Amino acid sequence: MFEHPLADAAVEADVQAALQEDVGDGDLTALLIPASTRGTADVITREDGVFCGRPWVDATFAALDPDLKLDWQVDDGDRVEAGQRLLTLVGSARTILTGERTALNFMQLLSGTATTARQYADRIATGAKLKLLDTRKTLPGLREAQKYAVRCGGCYNHRMGLFDAFLIKENHIAAAGSIAAAVDAARRQAPDRRVEVEVENVEELDAALAAGADIIMLDEFDLDSMRAAVARVAGRALLEASGSIDGDRLGAIADTGVDYVSIGALTKHVRAMDLSLRMRS
Q: Which of 8, 106, 137, 139 is deepest in the core (most CB within 10 A)?
């Protein structure tokens, strides 16, 4: 739905914040190891899933020691299996141990997000037009990272934030006075931005369509109501289903003809992938 290319500056900002949080003024325990000691370590996964996080890991170790060598065996978006080696690091043992937790945190979270996205994407038949979208229900400070992981898992991005598109919901409509007034104000405020309107019934659907909304979000519509909405709109606007949608319903929703389904669980209900870094003896 939206194109959000990964920005190097965003990765760098994430990494700097994470290193400041974890390393602060210095790694006390790493000082127990002589500075001249070199080491080799492998990162492995203990479970199946979809890998994600390379840019953040590269940036983490580059910030700590540009001479550390990273030998990747996977790319972002690759399916991985339990026991598989993902990465080998060679260089300063201090650097490897100092960056271990920060790097693993990024990999675990983003691989978990990508894996969740892939599990949802796999519920849609190959060739289906339906696209699964994320939402703004992300971890504070890591929105761009999680939305990148969603793409690596085979799903798509909704808006990045409040700044790149209009999403007119119930409270906006109440404050503006009507759907028509809200859409008109949006067109005057930023005519180049997409305007989406959330509706809860057929009357609101007709009002959003008459107002010229680009996208209409069908909030808590059942399958019959979705099919009726598709027939009623007849291609004059894009339709997005939302609200209490789980993976078991996706195939049936795809058959209704709606264009999108937005799913907060892609970034909100995420369990980190179980990864481990092991120093070689």
A: 106
